Amino acid sequence: MSKLYESQKLALWYFSVALVLFGAQLLFGLLAAYQYLNPDFLYGVLDFSINRMLHINAMIVWLIMGFMGGVYWFLPIETGREVVGIKLAKLAFFVLVAAVAVVVLVYLLVQTGKGDFFTLWFITEGREYIEAPRWADWGIVAVMLVFYFNVVATVIKSKKLTGILGVLIIDLLALAGLYLAGMYFTPNISVDQFWWWWVVHLWVEATWEVLVGVLMAWALMTVLGTPRKIVEAWLYLEVFLVFGTGILGLGHHYFWIGTPEYWLGIGGFFSALEPIPLVAMVVHAIYDAGSHKLRAANKPALFWIMAQAFGNFVGAGMWGFMHTLPQINLYSHGTQITPAHGHLAFFGAYVTANLVLMYIAIQRVRAPEGPALDSRAWKLAYVGFVITIFGMVGALTVAGFAQIFVERAVGGATWSAYIAGQEHPWVREPMYWRFGFGVLFLLSYLILIYDMLTIGKRAATATEVKPA
Amino acid sequence: MGIGWLEVTVAAFVLTVVSGAFLARGSNWLEPRFWKGFAIGGSLVMFTLLWILTFDTLKKISMGSERVPSPTVINHKIGYEYNADRRMYVPVIGEEEPFFGKKWSEEEAYRLITKGKLVIQSRNCMDCHTLLGNGAYYAPDLTKAWLDPKWETMIKPMLKVETREEAIATWLMNTDKYPTWTRRMPNLGLSKEEAQAVVAYLKFMSAIDTNGFPDHFGKTASK
Question: CA 20 to 30 Å from B142, out of A217, A248, A368, A377?
């Protein structure tokens, strides 16, 4: 077996930092979840707002780092050569890690600032999900430009523009371009949120979905040996369906922010179609796994591929559809239904995809000639994650429904109605279940880390099964 | 203008099918090239339509438009009433009233609103509250917070102040001392000027036409 490309070594660094940030995400998530049960906990020291911001920002950053790792992993395989500008890529990695560390320290130690532009540039931008201060935004743009240069230059040098690479190049351009819409201040909150959703929605419900489509295409070829022609046809179909429904599906965020009434119809209609590409992926996954009788040389990767297809459909598709029509969203918007959807969708679509990529890399590093990559620990982590994510999501869904009735439909959405909703047992008690399942989710994470550190190590010399 | 959501939707469909079929012409539907045609056609059509709608929307939500008021709206009484024609609750801008004891000029009001928005972002309000329904779910939605009955029924008597704007500003500067239930808002160190700017922003925001969100705010279902 040939040596790893430098680009693949860089991918391993990306995966490692991603896993650390995954742990940070869970830690701050648990702190925030516990504050629902005991609001005095760390009050005035590490308030809910800070924990919640770190919970979500850590997630966004680690998922992106995992995806970048995935691209750096597969790019040399796809093009058959070392990535162009690999030294620059490594430098960009360290810049990114250092920037993330500084941003997190400022979040933790400084937290907030005066209401002026200095705060927006150096402490927090205060716009949900993309709170990173402006200097860090530009840092991210610089790192992304290096990343983009690596991809494009490598493809040009290798003179191999496959269909998958074509989709990747266009998708990354859109993904990076959209981030620019996030660096913007206006006193008009309707205009603010209009552009803000361009970043948030067109990332997670369009360009991220396609990026994951690209990475899963490579994963299917690696794990199951699916022919390129089939994978590419599916990828194009997916791009067609994801962009065909998701771009105007953006309208489901434009129901209530001051934007014109026609968005109720456009957003409701197109976002209702958004689950279609996700159903298509489930069909594909069942077909593929069935034709291989659930056997592959990389067991955990195969099962996480299945989890990705189903998780994306259930989390993004079903839980999204549940509250996407304006008639329902008028009452459900901004209730616990939203985090129920958010938790399941991000886990189902993106966490699973990252784990697939990581297990593929682990197999290549530890057992490239076989035996099949397998262990008891990955199964335990797998079952643990699936049960506990549904536990958390189930709890939040129950709380969300009760909140819709008590606070919104009956109470008229005021401050008092909000409190009445939150104190209702059907909202209060699920918050305990959520925290309990959250603790178990963290345990599953620890088992996952243990497995990733040990799987394939002991039997690395035996060679009965060749990877597909 | 006779173009509504249905026309846009039908146009999106027709254009997607036509452009996709044109780009995919001559290829079998099981070939990647067929779906490549639809991927390119569909994406271009949808993205173009999004840009057209974006220009239209931005025009309709500029400050001083019918949907998003001018900052001087803080000089007026604001209500939230059911509109039978549109079948939804809409903000109603009423007669003039002093805000912090004076009438604000257009320039002063704009500066105050801008300051308010900066304060809201600098204190990460959206990581506990929702604004226009977006944010976190640990604290009440602030879309129509200016109109909340609690300022009159609880906060004003508690702080012994004359006006609603004074009540909100004073409360915002002393949140840790006046808990309203088990979850206390942390004291975010707002100066008097910052607190007034936030109140102005809340009042401005409550006058935005949000297509009836939140439904029947401040009125219980039994009424």
Answer: A248
Domain count along chain A = 1
Residues 6+ apart with CB under 8 A from B138: A32, A35, A36, A48, A49, A52, B128, B129, B183
Which residues does chain B have within 8 Å of residue A273's beta carbon, measured at their own beta carbons?
none
Facing residue for A47 by CB, picked from B35, B182, B186:
B186
Q: Structure tokens of A349?
A: 């679509």
Inter-chain contact A258–B208, Cβ cutoff 8 Å?
Answer: yes
Rounded to whole angstroms, how far apart are CA atoms A395 and A414? 24
- Please state the rounded mean pLDDT for residues A229-234: 91
Q: Which of residues 152-181 of B touch A (CB under 8 A)?
A: 176, 180-181
The parent domain of residue A103 ranges over: 1-161
Asked whether A256 and B210 are in contact (CB, 8 A), the reply is: yes
pLDDT tens per residue across span A360-408: 999 999 988 878 999 999 999 999 999 999 999 999 999 999 999 999 9
Question: What distance in Å separates the CA atoms of residue B1 and residue A406, rounded to the nearest whole number?
Answer: 40
Length of chain A: 468
Collect all residues of chain B within an 8 Å Cβ-Cβ radius of residue A417: 220
A123-147: pLDDT as tens digits: 999 999 999 999 999 999 999 999 9
ipTM: 0.97
Reported as a single tens digit per residue, the pLDDT across A67-88 is 999 999 999 999 999 999 999 9
Alpha carbon distance B47, A70 (integer Å): 27
Q: What does A319-348 look like in DSSP terms, one character per residue?
A: HHHTTTSHHHHHHHTTSTHHHHHHHHHIII
Domain-embedded: residue A341: no
- DSSP string spanning A385-446? HHHHHHHHHHHHHHHHHHHIIIIIIITTT-HHHHHHHHHSHHHHHHHHHHHHHHHHHHHHHH
**B170-185 confidence digits (pLDDT tens):** 999 999 999 999 999 9
Q: How far apart are CA A289 and CA A306, in angstroms?
A: 8
How far is it, in rounded angstroms, from Cα A138 to Cα A99? 11
Q: Indicate the DSSP class of residue A83.
A: P
Positive or negative, the CA dihedral A444, A445, A450, A451 is positive
Q: pTM value?
A: 0.95
CATH topology of domain B71-206: Cytochrome Bc1 Complex; Chain D, domain 2 (1.10.760)
User: Locate tokens 């994963």: which residue?
Assistant: A219
Q: Enumerate the residues of chain A whose CB falls inside 8 A of the CB of residue B61.
A: 188, 190-191, 194, 258-260
Contacts of residues A351-354 at CB distance under 8 Å and 24 or more positions apart, as own/partner, are A351/A22, A351/A63, A352/A304, A352/A305, A352/A307, A352/A308, A352/A311, A352/A312, A353/A66, A353/A67, A353/A70, A353/A212, A353/A215, A353/A216, A353/A304, A353/A308, A354/A18, A354/A62, A354/A63, A354/A66, A354/A67, A354/A70
Q: A45-48 long-range CB contacts below 8 Å, 24 or more apart?
A: A46/A108, A47/A111, A47/B128, A47/B186, A48/B127, A48/B128, A48/B136, A48/B138
Contact B141 A113 (CB under 8 A): no
* Partners of B83 in beta bridges: B88
A256 located within any domain: no
| Chain A residues close to B120, C-beta within 8 Å | 115, 126
Dump pLDDT digits (tens) for B68-101.
999 999 999 999 999 999 999 999 999 999 999 9
- d(CA B159, CA B150) in angstroms, rounded, equals 12
Residue A217 lies in a domain: no
Q: Which residue of B has its CA nearest to A36?
A: B138
Please indicate, yes or no, if residue A101 is contained in any of the structural domains: yes
Give CA–CA dist B7/A151, Å, rounded: 40
